[in-house]
Amino acid sequence: MDRILAELADQQKIQDMIASHAPFMDILAEVTKMVARKMPDATVTFMLYDPADDTLSLVAGEGLSETYRTAMQRVKIGPEVATCGKAAFTRKAVITRDITAAPNWTAYRDSALKENLMSCWSVPVMVAGSELLGTFATYHPTPGQPSEDQLVLIMRAAGLVAFALTRQQDQRALRIQSQRYQSLFTYHPDAVFELDLNGCFVAANHGSENIAGFAEKNILGLHFQQFIKAEHHNVAQQAFEEARKGTPQNYEVVAYSINGEEYLVAVTNLPIIVDNEVVGVYGIAKDITRQRESELKLHVQRTHDLLTGLANRAGFEARLAEDLPLAKGRVAVLLINLDGFSSINDGLGHTVGDHLLQAVANRLVDGLEPGDFLARFAGDEYGVLLTDRARVENALPLVERLLSLLARPFVIDEHVLHVSASIGVAMGQVSSRDASALIQNAHMAVREAKAQGRNTWEWYAGDVDSTVREHIELRRELLEAVEHDQLVLYYQPLVDAHTGKMKALEALVRWQHPERGMVPPGDFIPLAERTGQIIDLDRWVLWRACQDLQSINADREVPLTVAVNISPVHFRRNGFFDEVKQALEESGLNPEHLELEVTEGLMMAGSEKAIELLQNVRNLGVKVAIDDFGTGFSSLSYLRQLPINKVKIDRSFIQDIASGRENAAIVEGIITMAHHLGLEVVAEGIETPEQRNDLAQRRCDILQGFYFSRPVPLAELLELPQQLPAVEGSCT
Ligand code: C2E
Ligand code: CA
Ligand code: CA
Questions:
Q1: What is the pLDDT of residues 260-316, one digit of tens each?
Q2: Which residues, 6 or more positions from 198, have their beta carbon under 8 angstroms from its beta carbon?
Q3: What DSSP line would sit under 646-682, residue for residue?
Q4: Which residues line ligand 1 (CB under 6 A)?
Q5: pTM to 2 decimals?
Q6: Which residues lie across from 49 on neighbouring strands?
Q7: Cα separation of 236 and 226, whole Å?
Q8: For 211, how many CA atoms within 13 A lie in the half-sphere containing its CB?
């Protein structure tokens, strides 16, 4: 009875140890002791099975030598491997009555006999009757076999070991699982937190503190909205509610840190579901401020030109692709390519080149309006996108303005640089063309413009409206006009204010248009200036005027001077000086009898070069007059620096000189000052005898106007009397 009670007590103790998760080795020791108490002469062993290599290793075996223990590590199981190896292999109890005689002990017999082991009784330790965990065995110093009780005891011990082992494994698996999730929560670098169903914090990890600076203890019980910028409350609330209904959500909001700093977070809300019921919401918030910043920076780099800060081609294309579907009407793409940029870049160096490109960008910005989109494509190419309807309709005047803006000299690092541009224009019908085709068309137009001799624009011949077409046609026709002798020179006399004698003639160009008739210069000179065609035109006028005057003067006692208008565009061209010389040489006209009329605007920009050029012209003997004086910006004192002979007071001052006192004062001032500087003064636009008298009294030297004669063809001019109506009572 005592024995049974003791046995029960032993088993109870072991089961308690298993239940309280005592360490496995302690439990094993207890099981071994329980068996040893019953079989005092036995050596009790447990070998652990490793399915990885199908071996057994001795774990418990009190009294065995170190040598034996070592020999019993990683013993491959098999049908003939001693007692335990066989028990493990067959998954059955194996009894070896006499180790000295057993054939399956051949390999281990000597080791066993050294330990005084003569018999061995082994049972497999298994879970659920199939999974092998090891073997439990007793060794005895005498040959023999177990009684039934003894065998039951060994099997029960094996059962207890199996139980302890599986519980321990269960326990470990559970611990691993729970701690794994705990680690995920604790060590996650993002803010991970748990909200209750009202949206208040229930838990928060270290990440929350790292990102926002709020320790868990300080935010528990607070509502998540307290950390989110007001504008984003709706987004966050909606996401929270969706998550609470069971659907995970992702969104971005601006949050506040403990310092009140704003930062951008990407938030994930996940429902916490327990037994099919949402009991709360998990939040994971990642600080994406930096990431977004660098994305933005990258985007800016990808879409912008570092040199000018403008959009680059990619940016332009993106904008175009974006705007095209939104545009109500058409859009226009202007492609601006500088002429002769590479020679500046190569000749003066890249720094100057870069500065020029920046200056060009600034000038273009000045020429555009806020809604226009400007980009720098590669190198010396810029793009403009017009989407506003009124802007698109006025694309051509804009193009012409940009051309003349760019034609003005640039002062870059002490160099005065002259560039012009070729502009290609393409228009996009919202429906019909995609973005890249539009740019392609503009490119084609630029090439065309370059082929036209630069400083000009070309229109991609797509669908264009009537005013545009007219403009384009006029330009083409003007080209023909120069080539096909449709230009005619008219002459208007300039008269000595006191004697009434004809002193000079101003050459004024007319266009004998095959259909339109006589086209006045006001209708085509500005256009020709913008397109660069003025150069050919002026060159022709200069040549023709020299020829005409030479032939007139041949028959005259007192020779006449001819005044030729020179457009600033022409004047600035390289080779202008040579052209003047050539025209004089070819005609044989005395240089003294040629006068160039230039405008004040010319002097304003790039003055040094202009002055030098004027001086060269003067050195030839040619005279120079400032035309339209008073309309520009030049001050009178500025005249002092210019190598000129004459000023022509603009017609607008003359027109109301009788009525406007202010104008009279200005005219008076100009005359006095000019005389002071040794310059002659011409008044143009004299239409009435009053104006003539007035100007003559104010000591103006020369008069010109319809009052004396309109501009007329050469033949008609030769018919005019040499003495034109001078001031009444004045001497002849
Ligand atoms: P501009 O150089 O000021 O020429 C004088 C203009 O005033 C001429 O107009 C002439 O017909 C006009 N005019 C002369 N007297 C009177 C008058 O008493 N009353 C009024 N109302 N007008 C008068 P036009 O011939 O139409 O020329 C206009 C402008 O075209 C010229 O102004 C000049 O800037 C430009 N232009 C004319 N021919 C040439 C040329 O061969 N080359 C260049 N580059 N420009 C030219
Ligand atoms: Ca003139
Ligand atoms: Ca004038």
A1: 889 999 999 999 988 888 999 999 999 999 998 888 888 888 889 989 999 999 899
A2: 223
A3: EEEE-HHHHHTTTT-HHHHHHHHHHHHHHHHTT-EEE
A4: 492, 507-509, 520-522, 525, 538, 541, 565, 567, 597, 627-628, 684-687, 704-706, 711
A5: 0.47
A6: 56
A7: 11
A8: 30
